[in-house]
């Protein structure tokens, strides 16, 4: 596998009433970028994908030959009329995708007749089955219930190789995360690798924050990792 790096070299973007400064290096692994509503997560995802040019600075994709972006709203990705056509547009048979998505739909029905959550699961099943060097997932958990979030997390955690970046304000359910980032005060902040990065993560969910404050640093942000830390006798 060739070395992959996405370098944000003071990649700044400005709009009349908003700006974002993004500086840092994303290496192979699973990255979590958290931030409040409107903080710039989607804009940063577009910048990293090469779909939004920085106003100043640069975004350098070293060794990255393939990029996939998943937008928050699954309708943005639809190109087929039926579920089967939609799966085919990704190069997949509908049966396998429908099984992986865990939804109960027929391949011949119009893809836009699916509920938002079903469509999101179908889209995620397709995109998570593709191999790529850089996978950018903007709010992958939106529209999903807890079991579906957990299944998507398992699929993300299984990704081997490549750079995966999750942009989200999710506070409950996470996959295995290697590196924590957050957007705060108009800047991308590198909180650091897990688990030490937890100490610097302002957007940490309440349970993770409590565990850190009580000296039980979770090794992982997965539900199992948080449970293990919560059940641990204080260090
Ligand atoms: N095309 C645009 N033109 C002008 N301003 C925009 C445009 N797109 C986004 N913005 C502004 O840029 C800022 C960042 O938006 P962005 O969608 O990146 O935030 P976000 O963190 O992804 O939000 P959310 O959590 O709601 O998805 C917001 O203030 C938004 O109003």
TrEMBL record:
Domain of life: Archaea
InterPro entries membership: AAA+_ATPase, ABC_transporter-like_ATP-bd, ECF_ABC_transporter_ATP-bd, P-loop_NTPase
Protein name: ABC transporter related
GO molecular function, one term: ATP hydrolysis activity
ABC transporter domain mapped to chain residues: 1-210
GO CC list: ATP-binding cassette (ABC) transporter complex
Gene3D superfamilies named in the record: P-loop containing nucleotide triphosphate hydrolases (3.40.50.300)
SMART domains in UniProt: AAA (SM00382)
Recorded coiled-coil stretches: none
Species annotation: Methanoregula boonei (strain DSM 21154 / JCM 14090 / 6A8)
UniProt xrefs under SUPFAM superfamilies: P-loop containing nucleoside triphosphate hydrolases
Keywords: ATP-binding, Nucleotide-binding, Transport
């Amino acid at each position: 596998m060739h070395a992959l790096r996405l370098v944000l070299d003071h990649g700044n973007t400005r709009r009349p009433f908003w700006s974002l400064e993004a500086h840092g290096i994303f290496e192979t692994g699973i990255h979590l970028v958290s931030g409040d509503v409107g903080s710039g997560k989607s804009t940063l995802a577009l910048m990293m994908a090469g779909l939004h040019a920085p106003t100043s600075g640069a975004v350098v994709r070293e060794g990255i030959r393939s990029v996939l972006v998943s937008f928050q709203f699954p309708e943005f990705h639809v190109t087929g009329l039926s579920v089967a056509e939609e799966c085919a547009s990704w190069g997949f048979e509908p049966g396998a995708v429908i099984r992986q998505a865990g939804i109960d739909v027929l391949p011949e029905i119009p893809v836009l007749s699916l509920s938002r959550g079903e469509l999101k699961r179908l889209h995620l099943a397709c995109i998570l089955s593709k191999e790529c060097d850089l996978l950018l997932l903007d709010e992958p958990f939106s529209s999903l219930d807890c079991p579906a979030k957990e299944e998507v997390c398992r699929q993300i955690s299984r990704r081997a190789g490549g750079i995966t970046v999750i942009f989200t304000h999710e506070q409950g359910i996470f996959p295995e995360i290697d590196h924590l980032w957050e957007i705060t005060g108009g800047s991308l902040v590198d909180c650091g690798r897990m688990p030490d990065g937890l100490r610097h993560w302002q957007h940490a969910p309440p349970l993770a924050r409590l565990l850190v404050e009580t000296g039980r640093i979770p090794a992982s942000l997965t539900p199992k990792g948080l449970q293990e830390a919560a059940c641990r006798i204080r260090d």
